[in-house]
């Protein structure tokens, strides 16, 4: 990895580590709001999400500022915007009156009843920040071409934010997905996308030990932010056709998640299962393969401290 990309990864790792240490000294009220109990009955914290999101975004902004101020601004808007509304859903979505508003159907039902769910706020916030970020990325000069390019970039950014979040259902899974997705984007180019992918890599590697050790959880704040940053990296590098194909793939995965259990698919696929279980603690009460219900968006379970989806291993963020 050339010096610039190594520098972005190292800065993200250092910033994430420093924020992790600072998070241990948060006021009791904040610590309690971020506290959860996992399926083992052990305390975990959602502080991993904000610290990882901030560490990755800071390094990505610095890494791209010398390449393109517009890309650096897009990185900041997408990363911080997704982290902010994700944190809102992590905390507010844990309230008893919000626990039934899960999945897109749950958000729509809440709106029909005259309520705005925390998840709906998050979806709107991620979409809005993705649209602003997309408008800052390279686009055609004609009005119509610019509108198409912006819409495609925004779809890639918002879609990536949501898809990474879909995998935050087991310790380390979303971080591994983020690292695998960042891999191809580390190849050097002049757009600045490699610096963004490097920042995500450094932050994810730093967060991985505590996540695998079930001491902390990524939650919506972290998963949405890392996904949004990867979306910016991809949209910055790709042309219109590449953005369209990537957007279609992400939308397809989101649609599939409403019908298919990603956990069950991973459990039935030996190679994916091996990667998924690498580094994790020995299972205690995890369900057998194929038990989880269809449609398990992490955004809908990350903030529920006392309830769980049928077939998922237990209460707490990420359904863990």
Structural commentary:
This protein has about 325 residues and is mainly α. The chain has one domain (about 5-320). Helix content is about 65%, strand content about 0%. It contains 13 helices and two strands. The chain has helices spanning about 5-25, 30-35, 50-65, 70-90, 105-110, 120-135, 145-165, 175-185, 195-210, 220-235, 240-255, 260-270, 270-275; strands at about 35, 45. A two-stranded antiparallel ribbon has the order 1-2. Helix 1 (about 5-25) runs parallel beside helix 9 (about 195-210), helix 3 (about 50-65) packs antiparallel against helix 4 and helix 7 runs parallel beside helix 11 (about 240-255). The longest helix has 24 residues, at about 70-90. The protein is globular, with a radius of gyration of 18 Å. The two termini are about 35 Å apart. The model is unreliable at about 285-320 (pLDDT under 50).
Q: Summarize this, please?
A:
The protein has 320 residues and is mostly helical.
Helices and strands, with pairings:
Layout lengths: L2 H21 L4 H7 E3 L5 E3 L2 H18 L3 H24 L10 H10 L5 H19 L6 H24 L6 H13 L7 H20 L6 H19 L2 H18 L4 H7 L1 H8 L43
Antiparallel strand pairs: 1-2
Helix pairs in contact: 1-3, 1-9, 3-4, 3-9, 3-10, 4-6, 4-10, 6-7, 6-10, 7-10, 7-11, 8-9, 8-10, 9-10
């Amino acid at each position: 990895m050339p010096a610039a990309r190594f520098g972005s990864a190292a800065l993200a790792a250092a910033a994430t580590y420093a924020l992790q240490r600072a998070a241990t000294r948060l006021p009791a009220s904040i610590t309690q709001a971020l506290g959860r109990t996992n399926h083992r009955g052990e305390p975990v914290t959602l502080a991993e999400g904000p610290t990882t999101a901030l560490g990755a975004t800071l390094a990505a902004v610095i890494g791209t500022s010398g390449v393109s101020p517009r890309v650096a601004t897009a990185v900041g808007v997408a990363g911080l915007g997704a982290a902010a509304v994700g944190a809102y859903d992590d905390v507010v979505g844990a309230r008893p009156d919000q626990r039934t508003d899960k999945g897109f159907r749950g958000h729509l039902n809440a709106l029909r009843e005259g309520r705005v769910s925390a998840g709906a706020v998050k979806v709107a916030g991620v979409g809005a920040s993705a649209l602003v970020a997309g408008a800052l990325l390279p686009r055609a000069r004609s009005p119509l071409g610019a509108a198409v390019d912006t819409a495609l970039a925004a779809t890639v950014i918002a879609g990536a934010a949501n898809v990474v979040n879909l995998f935050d259902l087991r310790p380390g899974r979303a971080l591994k997905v983020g690292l695998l997705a960042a891999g191809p984007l580390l190849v050097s180019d002049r757009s600045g996308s490699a610096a963004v992918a490097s920042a995500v890599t450094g932050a994810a590697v730093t967060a991985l030990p505590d996540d695998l050790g079930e001491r902390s959880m990524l939650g919506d704040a972290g998963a949405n932010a890392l996904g949004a940053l990867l979306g910016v990296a991809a949209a910055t590098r790709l042309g219109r056709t590449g953005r369209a194909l990537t957007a279609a793939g992400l939308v397809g995965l989101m649609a599939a998640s409403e019908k298919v259990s990603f956990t069950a698919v991973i459990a039935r696929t030996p190679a994916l299962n091996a990667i998924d279980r690498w580094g994790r603690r020995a299972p205690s009460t995890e369900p057998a393969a194929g038990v989880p219900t269809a449609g398990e968006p992490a955004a809908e379970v990350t903030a529920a401290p006392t309830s769980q989806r049928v077939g998922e291993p237990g209460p707490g963020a990420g359904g863990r």
